[in-house]
Amino acid sequence: MKLGIVTGVVWASRKVKEIEGCRMYIVQPVTSEGEINETPLVVADPKRLAAPGDKIVYVTSTDATQAFDNGFAPVNASIVELVDGIA
Question: Which of 1, 23, 59, 86 has its CA at a distance of 20 to 30 angstroms from the CA of residue 65?
Fold first, then answer.
């Protein structure tokens, strides 16, 4: 699991059926101290949890595909939680 901040929205006029209705965001990966540590990436939000400006937890690879109710979607990263705070 990785931390990130939602910085923008991705709009797509055509999507594969597995991700229809799924929001897509631009996420800036950050450390637990809030420092930028990687290049921004596009992340799926299958549970519609996030909005621009939110700090989130996202997963990649096979875990990202399993965040969908149907158990599979052709994505590389998915939002799985909102972050309230870091102690």
Answer: 86
Cβ-based neighbour number of residue 50 at 10 Å: 21
Token digits for 45? 């939000």
Q: What is the distance between the alpha carbons of residues 42 and 65, in angstroms, rounded to a whole number?
A: 14
- Provide the 10 A C-beta neighbour count for residue 6: 23
Q: pLDDT tens digit string along 3-60? A: 999 999 999 888 899 998 899 999 999 999 989 999 999 999 999 999 999 999 999 9
Taking the complete model, does pTM exceed 0.70, yes or no? yes
The span from the CA of 87 to the CA of 10, in Å, is: 31
The secondary structure of the chain in percent helix, strand, coil, rounded to multiples of 5, reads 10, 40, 50
Domains, in order of start, for the chain: 2-82 (2.40.50.220)
